[in-house]
Model the fold of this input.
Amino acid sequence: MTEFVDTAAEAVARVQDGSTVLLGGFGNAGQPMELIDALLESGTTGLTVVSNNAGQGDRGLALLIKERRVRKVICSFPRQSDSWHFDEAYRAGDIELELVPQGNLAERLRAAGAGIGAFFTPTGYGTTLAEGKETREIDGRHYVLEHPIRGDVALIKAHTADDAGNLLYRKTARNFGPVMATAAAHTVVQVQQRVPVGSIDPEHVVTPGIYVDTVTALGADPARPEGQPENHPQEAKHA
Amino acid sequence: MSTENSTSTLSREDLARLVAADIAPGSYVNLGIGQPTKVSDHLRADQQVTLHTENGMLGMGPEAHGEDIDEELINAGKIPVTERPGASYFHQADSFAIMRGGHLDVCVLGAFQVSAAGDLANWSTGAPDAIPAVGGAMDLAIGAKQVFVMMSLFAKDGTPKIVADCTYPLTGLACVSRVYTDHGVFLVDHGEDGPSVTLREAHGMSPHEVADRLDFPLTLPAENG
Done:
């Protein structure tokens, strides 16, 4: 059953020192900035963070890394033009990096959520990122054995949650959200709006509430003062 | 211009135009970050090409400007983009299933090196002090039905970038189908008799001059071609 809490601080209370945190987002799109800010406030440290990037600019994950709260990052693309906080921590030897091809990252999370023990993928075969991993030839093609990535807590961003915890996302901010929601022992979601059950057409639900443990509704996104993304709010009105 | 030798090299714009013209109508295509992105400027509406971006979208439109900028609608290079009618959004596992599952017709990538066997090296220079980043490169390399590479034929020091064996860290094995360069277009055949590379057209050099600069056997275009 999905619980609703009033503040981002309550929502991230389950994250403990040393937790493995699945952090949604591709770049800043879909990154749960308010949950991350609450995590910064909470002081939790020694985190292993699983995310596509390792933070950009001076927001979100970049600040967690700047404050040295992250012991290890598992990601596909840490180095960017504005990943200065990660770059500094990495060069100082303050952070461990496990580099994973983006599709393998997504599929390892999916496998964790779907109860798959491990899987053979062609991605990375013959490269340094597959060194030391078991390989197999299947029907003339070469594959690498990859294992699931499970989280203690997933922190993701969606657009709308109904009272049953069913989620709608918005545009490319969806990215890792639906997969990470399945892969953690406890999934925490920040949404812009909470609506009554029945407001979302069941045919349109992207993440069913069974995967969602804690939701906090933040109201209108301050970055979008008009607050009217084109697609989903209409749906809520029509229902 | 296509499939004809010329005396001048191809500019980056020429190259993008050439790649765009070679994409079959109705294709689903992923354009890599950097130079390959330019290909979209030369796709004609009547080609009805659908662009995939690996962060979770089919039907991507051109870069967004001004009021159209939405930080939740970006491409794989994190540039704000627009959506075309008929666009769809999906999560990361689905997006990479589109590649890995062989549903994407073409991806166009940049490269440091391509080998005569079609091996691709485009994600790391292997420099010991570099911070590594791979993103979706390895998934794209092995996933699309056809992998087109766009790059210059020669490095700044004059050494060729199509080589017998890659010296840079590999992205994928035997995955490249074509290489579009300033000096010519190369077709990689992954036949049962082993891989072979054919020069389809040369630019700014004669086909024989191109072959002389490469350290593997190159099949030249038919003389009457």
